[in-house]
Specification:
There is one protein chain. This protein has about 475 residues and is an alpha/beta fold. The chain contains 16 helices and 15 strands. The strands form 2 sheets. The chain has a 9-stranded mixed sheet with strand order 14-13-12-11-7-10-9-8-15. The chain has a 6-stranded parallel sheet with strand order 3-2-1-4-5-6, with helices on both faces. Helix 1 crosses helix 14, helix 6 runs antiparallel to helix 15 and helix 11 crosses helix 15. The chain is globular and about 80 Å long. This is Glucose-6-phosphate 1-dehydrogenase. It catalyses: D-glucose 6-phosphate + NADP(+) = 6-phospho-D-glucono-1,5-lactone + NADPH + H(+). Pathway: Carbohydrate degradation; pentose phosphate pathway; D-ribulose 5-phosphate from D-glucose 6-phosphate (oxidative stage): step 1/3.
Length: about 475
């Protein structure tokens, strides 16, 4: 839902349109929006490559086909007619004069910066000097800062020329189907809403596992690591949606206010409750610095000190070169008292609620039942694709939200700074890096982190078994 008074973009300007993100995600998202008749403006691509608009169209068609998206020539022809191109140096003021000549200075524009974070502020400042920001919105990709200090510095530079409502901080996890719809799942279903607090929930586990390594991204990844790459942004944003109170209205700030309240209630992470790991062979990846101490795996324990969640431990883990590619949230209920009618006066195992984000989004309610005196799991499963139809792709959802001025799916300044505050002690006191074997679930120390609590569970995988 767009904020009242928000105007739909009359022009989309994509900086970095010849880069990897456009090739892997953006062109496909634009094509899908075109197919659904939700794209209604011209698109100007800006990059340093000296190519023609015909070359750009060819690249777009090739990129869309490579994603496996069903290809309709008529749909692509409509998209191609929207495309134009301008090449130049984003640090050169003359480029922005050319943009102004092409677009004018009084159009409702969305500037999407698919660029390195070091260029966010210079690009926005140049847009401001050229008078191109009066009616504009600017979308920037993560990472938004490298730590709390740099995030504040970047916010200050952007806010010097933009209002907060003009800034859209992109986190593609917020566009994933189950993440975007978690409000409805939690608050529209009494069955879930009545369970969703410390009276019923004993602990929360969030897992983001990738079954591949750093591959050819050694230089980038070595400067970031798992904590900065996915925990400070993706997983904490998911946690906020899982833990927040119901928003009081449909507006952009109504949702973001509740997410910010969760972060403000979270104490800084304790380095004593954090485990870092690196898969064997990482040091040999091209681009990784000699003696690097960057982690490819991290597991940590967090708390939310508010009335809903006080006393409920929250465990997060994320890593590369793990056995599966899967992202899930798992909530464990408290155990029921010992059952006097059982022969051995047994306590039944805990119930579980599992929200699978990737792949094949869905929800599982894991109950228990007796089978000839033995407790067995009973699974009530829903595949959202099967039950609700083909999901909207994350970048498709986010691009459309950005163009119509719906800020609910974008991170707000205060939340970004709070998440950096939460992980700051882990950046300041990183601790040792444990080696783990590729294809394992990380270092043994990650198991010790949950000692006395529920052990890490094998993720719930789609029908057909492990994903590649």
């Amino acid at each position: 839902m767009a904020e009242r008074g928000a105007a739909t973009s009359e022009l989309l300007v994509i900086f970095g349109i010849t880069g990897d993100l456009a090739r892997k995600m953006t062109f496909r998202a634009l094509y899908r929006l075109e197919r659904r008749n939700l794209l209604d403006c011209p698109i100007l691509g800006v990059a340093s490559d000296d190519i023609s608009v015909e070359d750009l169209v060819d690249r777009a068609g090739e990129a869309i086909r490579k994603t496996g998206e069903p290809f309709d020539d008529a749909v692509f022809d409509r998209l191609a007619k929207r495309l134009s191109y301008l090449h130049g140096d984003v640090n050169d003021a003359a480029l922005y004069d050319q943009i102004a000549q092409r677009t004018g200075t009084d159009r409702q524009c969305l500037y999407y910066l698919e660029m390195p974070p070091s260029l966010f502020a210079p690009i926005v400042e140049n847009l401001g000097r050229a008078g191109l920001l009066t009616r504009a919105r600017v979308a920037v990709e993560k990472p938004f800062g490298h730590d709390l200090t740099s995030a504040r510095e970047l916010n200050a530079r952007l806010r010097a020329v933009l209002r907060e409502e003009q800034i859209l901080r992109v986190d593609h996890f917020l566009g994933k189907e189950p993440v975007a719809d978690v409000e409805g799942l939690r608050f529209a279903n009494t069955t879930l809403a009545e369970l969703w607090d410390r009276r019923s929930i004993a602990e929360i586990h969030i897992t983001m596992a990738e079954n591949f390594g750093v591959e050819d991204r050694g230089s980038f990844y070595d400067s970031v690591g798992a904590l900065r790459d996915v925990v400070q942004n993706h997983l904490l944003q998911v946690l906020a949606l899982i833990a927040m109170e119901p928003p009081v209205g449909p507006g952009d700030d109504d949702l973001n206010d509740k997410k910010a309240e969760v972060f403000r209630a979270m104490p800084p992470a304790d380095p004593a409750h954090c485990v870092r790991g690196r898969y064997r062979g990482y040091a040999d990846v091209p681009g990784v610095a000699d003696g690097s101490q960057t982690e490819t795996f991290v597991a940590l324990r967090l708390q939310i000190e508010n009335w809903r969640w006080s006393g409920v431990p929250i465990f997060l883990r994320a890593g590369k070169a793990l056995p599966q590619r899967v992202t899930e949230v798992r909530l464990f209920t408290h155990r029921v008292p010992a059952l006097a009618f059982m022969p051995q006066r047994e306590r039944a195992p805990r119930n579980q609620i599992v929200l699978r984000i990737d792949p094949d989004p869905g929800m599982r309610l894991q109950l228990v039942a007796q089978d000839d005196g033995v407790w067995r799991d009973v699974h009530l499963d829903s595949s959202f694709t099967h039950d609700l139809g083909e999901p909207i792709q994350p970048y498709e959802r986010l691009l459309h939200a950005a163009m119509v001025g719906d800020r609910r799916l974008f991170a707000r300044e205060d939340s970004i700074e709070e998440t950096w505050r939460i992980v700051a002690p882990l950046l300041e006191h990183p601790g040792v890096v444990h080696t783990y074997e590729p294809g394992s679930w990380g270092p043994d120390a990650a198991q010790a982190l949950v000692r006395g609590h529920r052990s890490w569970q094998d993720p719930w995988l789609p029908e057909g078994g492990p994903t590649q």
